[in-house]
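Session log. Operator J.P. requested a structure for one protein chain; no other inputs attached. Running the standard single-chain path with token output.
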Amino acid sequence: MDAPPEVAFLARWRDREERGVRAEVADLRYGLLAEDGTERPALIVASGLFTGRQRVFAFDAGPPEAAPRSGLLVLIGWALVLGLGALITVSPRLSGLVPQYFGRRDLYREAVQKGYGLSTGTTAGLAALLALVVGLVGATVLRAFAATDALAVATASWEPDAQSRMVRLVGSPAVLGGLLAVLYSSWLLLNVTWVGILAGRRHRLRPAQAVSLVVWPRWPWLLLLIGAMLVASLSPGTAGGWAAVLLVAALVVETLAAWRALVDLTYVGYVPQGKALGLGFAIPFLVFLVGGIALLVTAGAEAGFLWHLAVRS
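Structure written below.
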């Protein structure tokens, strides 16, 4: 080196609890001045450097700026809980099905079979609430994963414009939750259609009956909603692992709900168990299982790496 450099920056990295939090996802802002006009350490460095007043800087940079919590998700979660309570309160038929489902399953099946206590509007409202609950849980999981490097690695091959749209979507919890709710509504509609096909023309199910068979077994999503609100309240450095637990629990809930719905269908729609549980559950389950195994075989290393990035604390 012929001449010493004009400026040399020396820094010692120290892992903190907040490491891995991506600024664009956590909505952090950097610059010379804070929003209230307060000078940040960067302004002292820049002004001293470019005016020639100072060449050596030694000061405590202080703790990193705390990332904002997803308070909006928690607020929406409580709104959904209150909405469910209000729906049960204003609908005596729906409130009558609750003790039957959890206490006397035979009475619940008879009520669905004969259409007792089933209102198309109330049942549709219950399905809409379920979709919103799933959307909130999914948004919480994705935002927790996005606070790590998993999102950046997964979208590394995307066009910059697509990456930017994804970042904006993840940074808008209400929009993200709404989009996931719409996608889950399509999944519910597919399940309702499948139940109707299995029932056949001889014992054709009304829409309210089919929706009830699909929606009621998915009540554990309410427990996942509570878990999602807790995860949304955690710091980004610790939320990833618990979000992974929520994701696995969601897959278990969906699998058991599909099984329970088809078991109820054998009583409500007089569908033989071989047809309902074999054709209706086992074959689709095996298709998904084979698809998952194929994914692990072809992209197991990549998927494992992304999972490691998402859950590490």
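Operator note: The two ends are 41 Å apart (CA to CA).
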